[in-house]
Fold:
Amino acid sequence: MASTNIKILVCVKEVPQPEAPIGIDPSAGWVQIERSTSYRINRFDGFAVEEALLIKEAFPDTTVDFITVGPDRSAMILKRALGMGGDQGIHIVTDGEGYLSPFVTAHWIALYARGKTYDLILTGVMSEDYMQGQVGPTIAEFLSLPCATATIFERLSPGEGEVYVAREIEGGFRDTLVLRLPVVLTVQSGINRPRYPSLSNMLRAKRQQMKTIAAKSLKQTDPRQGVIGIAYPSKLRSGQVLIGTQEEKARELLKILSEKSLVQ
Amino acid sequence: MAQSIIIIAEHFEGELRPVTYELVGFALELQKFCPAKIKMLILGDDVAGLAQDAATHTGLDVVAVIVPALTTYNLEVYKGILSERLPDLDPVYICMAHTTQGADLAPPLAVRIKAACITGVVQVSGEKDRVSFARDMYAGKVVATFESTSERRILTLQPGSLPSPVFDHPAPVAVETWTATYLAKQSMSRGIKPPKETNAALTEAEVVVSAGKGVGKKENLQIIDNLSRLWPGSAVGGSRPVCDSGWLEYRQQVGTTGATVAPKLYVACGISGASQHIAGMRGSGFIVAINRDSGAAIFNVADVCVVEDLITFIPCLIEEHRKQSI
Ligand SMILES: Cc1cc2nc3c(=O)[nH]c(=O)nc-3n(C[C@H](O)[C@H](O)[C@H](O)COP(=O)(O)OP(=O)(O)OC[C@H]3O[C@@H](n4cnc5c(N)ncnc54)[C@H](O)[C@@H]3O)c2cc1C
Ligand SMILES: Nc1ncnc2c1ncn2[C@@H]1O[C@H](COP(=O)(O)O)[C@@H](O)[C@H]1O
Structure:
């Protein structure tokens, strides 16, 4: 790869905003989320989008595409990503709200990406709702590409067909390696500071920049695993809930702490 | 051929990581549902001693997989060797830690060997032929039970979820040694770099007051600072996103990729309670959580739960304390 004509695909996912109540539907064995809940782009994916846009700034011939697998509603986060910059949004539209195995999501994204000569596929390190950290590395293996997870630094050398990567590992250490392009990287938070979408970009994120594919129309695959039930976690400590007005709660908290000699 | 439950050991700087022993506990749990033999594999260029230690300590079958020149974990090499060797062992379960190594290796290995892959498992339950795995979802607000009908399953265990078993004078076992080579073609390891900063102030403090993304903006960190002044010698910590935003320094981060703290008192302000954060503070003596979402997972590890907006509650708490001190 001699030219600096770089093609990047960034995987983005919608997640319910963090304070949304997560209900349980026992008959479905799955979560129940109120219709009024607002959704936003997975926080970790914001770092992947920003990293792609920084590469585009460094290498102006770069194209950046965004892809999401999700219900109709998730078109919104493609628009948001396009609002930050980038060229095209691809929406693989699913029916319903049930759990999607990472093998299924990764299979569809890999089907789309296959043959499109992306040099770099970026994902977040994990989704805030499913918390699996699987979709990125699974896409890589479906496409037989090298992969690095928890990327906290990358330096692309398109001329050499390589990328230098630092992965953040436990205890603040960094595992560094050089990978042959094309690669899949999962991006750890803190690698950059994601920009805000701009109004002009948001307006530009029009229909023609959006490609829609029905998941039904794609080849299906074995999900390998599924969710059979959902429960609220059990409390690991007493978890005394304070009641009353703010002042009453404050006084009660000070009383508890002083009984335990934890405050003067 | 007999089925097996495989443990992939984790080691760093010449020592087994403690989570490897938690994996032994995990494998023993799985064995209750599946009468397969447990085998631990340790990969690296110089792991004979580690393998001997692990075997002596646990009494399990341990294999030292000697891979010349493999000084640190490398995905391509691990994946290459394991996908070649594992099928011969007929593994029903392959257990790894949900660390940056396990999370890197498990999904692609699962694709290679046609296994299911369930990450961040905290608990195993069920009965014969119907085993299920619990893991957190939605920032720890709910726990989901997963099942797989695949014949092979790779599971990554959330560190700290299971105690390491106590091994009483295990019978001596012989360590097996295999030699394997794998030439990495797509990735070259360039070494491990040590952290730049120390976090002694945080790990040694008796009281840690921590800020989460719920503080809303950098200016509001002042509220957390003011609260920390109630305790001389306390330290201010924070969740990862707070450090990512530059509101606090990285050396103030608490969690799996930050500091592990165990102060007498930990006050979590506007922190949701994702497992990566909890792993860094669950050993604290007394935990107070302030969060305006009554469903936040942090409340499950708290001794006292304050469901309030921190922006107004903390000044009120400081004011009540002031009144009582005069
Ligand atoms: C490999 C890996 C390693 C990681 N390592 C770490 C780590 O070491 N440490 C770490 O912390 N995280 C780590 N994370 C990130 C972790 O998964 C969570 O994303 C993070 O802990 C969430 O931080 P938070 O609770 O501050 O933010 P959020 O999840 O956004 O939660 C904010 C909370 O504030 C509450 N809130 C909002 N406004 C107010 C208000 N006015 N008053 C009161 N409450 C309010 C909300 O209800 C919510 O519960 C890691 C993730 C990965 C994938
Ligand atoms: N439905 C999806 N559509 C697009 N990208 C996804 C989807 N699910 C997961 N991803 C990507 O994969 C990453 C890891 O997700 P997960 O494996 O669910 O933790 C996310 O940060 C996204 O970048």
